[in-house]
Write a structure and sequence with these properties.
The complex is a heterodimer of chains A (510) and B (346). Chain A has three domains: 234 residues, Rossmann fold, CATH 3.40.50; 177 residues, 3-Layer(aba) Sandwich (Rossmann fold); 77 residues, no CATH class. In chain A, 34% of the residues lie in helices and 24% in strands. In chain A, the strands form five sheets. Chain A has a six-stranded mixed sheet, with helices on both faces. Chain A has a six-stranded mixed sheet with strand order 18-19-20-15-21-22, sandwiched between helices. In chain A, strands 2-1-4-5 form a four-stranded antiparallel sheet, with helices on one face. The longest helix of chain A is centred in the middle third of the chain and has 16 residues. Chain B has 14 helices and four strands. The longest helix of chain B has 27 residues. Helices cover 66% and strands 4% of the residues of chain B. Chain B is globular. In chain B, strands 1-4 form a two-stranded antiparallel ribbon. In chain B, strands 2-3 form a two-stranded antiparallel ribbon. Chain B is mostly helical and 346 residues long. The chains are: A alpha/beta (510), B mainly alpha (346). The structure holds adenosine-5'-triphosphate and magnesium ion. The site of magnesium ion has 6 residues of chain A, from helix 1. Magnesium ion (MG) binds next to helix 1 of chain A.
């Protein structure tokens, strides 16, 4: 890819600042993007990436003094509709679909085609189907969004962006919920759009993706523009240094013993099922101090299996045995009582209380047991736990009193994870624990998982990121179509490799 | 807004580098401003009525009347705040108040046991609240429908309790609740009704901000699905808030019975639920649940009382009072929205 073929960039942002009450999220930031290239935008959690893109899309207004040029001409983007008019589309980090509407209705929301004053449903359906075909989406225009997985919902967002003719397409951490197959498809699509001459801005915390896609990488740190690397200059060390401002010396390495001291079986699940809708009878065993991975394509039933074990959904059959005793789990509170906890993959919808403070979100699972007589809050414990979580996960917020909704995506994830760590469970199921978390914090989370295993806690990690599964897990179950299709790792098992996992996931082995 | 308010000395450690959001101190200031956002409206109204009404509004006697008028609505509004914080609504408080006042009077007529009227009214309110709460928590029925049903049904029961007639008790043993005043400083007398209202507000504040239950109420209102996944027994919280609302309506029943020495199942408490809801909304509590404060409700109830009293004082007819009151409620909330726009989360 030749660089800067055109002297005038498709998009240029200059001197952009953004102040929220009490925090300067962006300070004199600049950015250039050309048509026909992929510009990666990187930076730690809270660096200001999403904020910059929200200014581009008209969701936020920048402070006075900045300039925004499209094809060299200054434009004022006062609201999202103006952005659309200038051909800017954005797929947000946090999905924003109307859950009760169908795919077609969501894609055409606000721009419904009409015929004689009536919504032209056939036209909507055909138009929608065309985009879905282009994406290779596994659902129809009439599918209702609320029943879809996060990955599927994201495809709907992408379809919506592609459907209006975009000149500039922003993808804010689009692969966090996708498994490798969906990711490959997305990448193919990104390349196709690049070839079509669209300017793509791609936000991600994953180095591998940036290597694979980006023509140039711009880096933000603490709300300021640090610099831009071309593809030729790209190296992990250089990038990390730009993002973090220092050398990140220690990446994660496993320190707990994967097999040698494997303890007795801690959790056994026998034939658990929801009646066959999404989970067909599944059985598994988790040992004390073991990190068990669950891999599989999105939609293979991993989350649904975890929710069944946790009691979040009603089960139609099966048994959960904890430390040798059969336990009746009919609701999450039953699971928590016996020391089984579950971190959801959907932090905004099912995890966080966005209007409550970080500290309360962190403490929510333990305020009941911390409380003094009569259910009086123990505020000292509240502060202590919040401070500890802030410290150990390096949560970036002014204080634990800040409402969690104003934090960046990655920092929200850290807050949610802390809630479950504070509970101190015997078995911890982590569903996409590092979604949207930056590299520094990611290795921090891996280290915590490692630490939990050393303390004889059983950890189950559900992840779509294969390197993550391979890096942290001692044994991996692969799910396919609601069933456990195979197992890799463990004593005497096949080695945990990408090929072995993929083979089961795609149904080529077994 | 901070959900655990901190005293300024204990304001949490501020991270020196690249912090986000507001500092604890700023947050504290903002949460106070937010809760008291309607306070200027209250002052402006009071001063305006004072000068429009020949300087008769801001006198000790009149203010004591205003406090009395605000008291019952404040108590109902406190219960309503609990309910609305969970994202629900309680339309039945006016009817429950009527039924409870009937109980209070019926028991007050028992020779020698007249004081039983108070617990009888509270239990009546609690009972109806529990029924509302059970239907909503276990029956999974929408709060609007359930309490709309009890609005009608309980009204009928209240009429039945007095054979559709007014019950009098000129020797009401707890009449002091409605008519006495406590001297707190020379020349400053506070009606017992107002004292009760303040105590209810203080207890509500304590429950909402200092107990686990309070946090759970905010959590259930803010994100019910996440609350369930966090192990909160959502049904318990719902049962609690509707019971509280019912019981406080019962207390309202005691208060109005004590004031009037009488109760009438048909007329008493008619459309009180609307004033209580208006107080909560004026106080800035979100209708969706999860955001709001009890202090706001107090100010909302005071605004409504000031309006009724002031308009009468100024000589506005009953008909126009309705119209003005409605417009002020809409206007004040619209103003609040504009004011908070800058800090609103998008
Ligand atoms: N609506 C808001 N109100 C207050 N502060 C905000 C708001 N939105 C963002 N911020 C703050 O602005 C800063 C930048 O946030 P932003 O979401 O842009 O980070 P990011 O680079 O996208 O991080 P991540 O990788 O975690 O998604 C953060 O400190 C965040 O707390
Ligand atoms: Mg972001």
């Amino acid at each position: 890819m030749t660089l800067e073929p055109d002297p005038v960039p498709r998009l240029e942002m200059r001197g952009i600042s953004k102040t929220f009450p009490g925090v300067k999220a962006l300070n004199d930031v600049k950015l250039k993007a050309w048509g026909g290239e992929v510009l990666a935008l990187m930076g730690e959690n809270g660096a200001g990436k999403s904020t910059l893109m929200k200014i581009l899309s008209g969701a936020y207004q920048a402070d006075a003094g900045g300039t925004l040029l499209i094809d060299g001409k200054p434009v004022a983007i006062t609201d999202p509709i103006a952005a659309k008019r200038h051909g800017i589309s954005i797929i947000y980090q946090e999905l924003a679909l109307a859950p009760n509407l169908t795919v077609a209705e969501n894609i055409y929301l606000g721009i419904e085609p009409s015929r004689r004053g009536q919504i032209d449903r056939p036209a909507m359906r055909t138009g929608c189907q065309a985009v879905l075909n282009r994406l290779g989406a596994p659902f129809t225009p009439d599918t209702v969004v609320s029943g879809m997985s996060i990955a599927e919902q994201q495809l709907v967002e992408i379809a919506r962006a592609l459907h209006t003719n975009s000149k500039i397409l922003v993808l804010d951490e689009p692969t966090t919920a996708l498994s490798s197959r969906e990711t490959d498809r997305l990448f193919a699509l990104v390349r196709q759009l690049r070839a079509e001459g669209i300017a793509l801005i791609y936000i991600s915390h994953r180095m591998a993706e940036v290597y694979e896609l980006a023509d140039r990488v711009s880096v933000l740190r603490d709300g300021s523009y640090v610099g831009t690397l071309t593809r030729e200059e790209l190296s992990a060390e250089a990038l990390v240094k730009m993002m973090v401002g220092r050398d990140l010396s220690s990446f994660y390495t496993k320190t707990h013993d994967p097999h040698g001291s494997r303890g007795p079986v801690l959790l056994e699940v026998r034939g658990i099922t929801d009646g066959g809708r999404r989970v067909r009878p599944c059985s598994l065993r988790l040992h004390q101090g073991e990190v068990l991975g669950i891999a599989g394509l999105v939609g293979s039933g991993r989350t649904e299996l975890a929710r069944l074990i946790y009691g979040a959904d009603g089960k139609a059959g099966g048994e959960v045995i904890l430390a040798g005793n059969s336990v009746a789990i009919n609701a999450p509170e039953d699971a928590l009582k016996v020391g089984l906890a579950y971190l959801t993959e959907d932090r905004k919808g099912l995890g966080l209380f966005l209007d409550l403070s970080c500290g309360t979100n962190i403490n929510l699972g333990v305020i009941g047991s911390d409380a003094r007589a009569g259910g009086i809050l123990d505020r000292a414990a509240w502060r202590r736990r919040a401070a500890r979580a802030f410290e150990s996960l390096r949560i970036r917020a002014a204080s634990p009193q800040v409402i969690v909704g104003s934090l960046s995506g990655g920092n929200q994830q850290k807050v949610l994870l802390s809630r479950w760590l504070e509970i101190g469970p015997k078995v911890l199921i982590l569903d996409e624990p590092t979604r949207g978390v930056d590299i520094g914090a990611k290795s921090e989370i891996y280290r915590i998982i490692d630490e939990l295993a050393k303390r004889d806690i059983g950890v189950i990690v559900i992840s779509s990121e294969l390197p993550e599964i391979i890096g942290v897990c001692d044994r991996v179950l692969v799910m396919r179509e609601g069933q456990i299709a195979g197992e890799v790792g463990g004593p005497g098992g096949a080695p945990i490799t990408q090929e072995n996992i993929m083979a089961f996931g795609a149904g080529m082995a077994a | 807004m901070s959900d655990i308010s901190e005293d300024s000395t204990a304001a949490g450690p501020t991270q020196p580098s690249g912090g986000a959001g507001l500092s604890a101190r700023q947050l504290q200031v903002r949460s106070i401003v937010q809760a008291l956002g309607m306070l200027p409206v209250l002052f402006i109204l009071a001063i305006a009525f004072h000068y429009l009404g020949d300087e008769r509004f801001l006198t000790p006697q009149n203010l004591s009347i205003v406090a009395q008028q605000a008291a019952i609505n404040t108590v109902l509004g406190a219960g309503m705040t609990f309910v609305i914080l969970t994202g629900g609504i309680d339309l039945s408080v006016g009817s429950i108040l009527a039924a409870s006042a009937m109980s209070a009077l019926i028991f007050s007529l028992l020779p020698g046991w007249g004081m039983l009227g108070i617990p009888a009214a509270l239990l009546t309110g609690l009972g109806f609240g529990l029924i509302n709460g059970s239907l909503i928590a276990f029956g999974k029925l929408p709060p609007f429908i359930v309490t709309l049903g009890s609005l009608t049904a309980v009204r009928g029961l209240a009429r039945l309790m007095g054979n559709d007639a007014t019950i009098f008790n000129p020797d009401l043993p707890f009449a002091f609740i409605g008519n006495a005043a406590i001297t707190i400083a020379p020349g400053v007398r506070v009606p017992v009704l107002a004292v009760i209202a303040i105590v209810v507000i203080l207890i509500s504040w304590y429950v909402l901000r200092r107990t686990v239950l309070g946090i759970w109420i905010y959590a259930v209102g803010g994100n019910p699905a996440a609350a369930r996944l966090s192990g909160i027994k959502v049904w318990r919280i719902l049962l609690f808030v509707y019971s509280v609302s019912g019981m406080l309506a019962g207390l309202g029943g005691v208060m109005s019975a004590a004031r009037l020495f009488a109760a009438n199942g048909l007329q008493l408490g008619q459309s009180y639920e609307l004033d209580a809801i208006a107080a909560v909304i004026l106080g800035g509590t979100s209708f969706v649940g999860g955001i709001g404060s009890i202090w706001g409700t107090l100010i909302g109830a005071l605004i409504i009382a000031v309006l009724s009293n002031g308009l009468t004082l100024v000589g506005v007819s009953d008909i126009w009072q309705f119209i003005v009151k409605g417009l002020v409620i809409i206007g004040a909330v619209a103003l609040d929205r504009v004011r908070l726009q800058g800090s609103a989360r998008t």
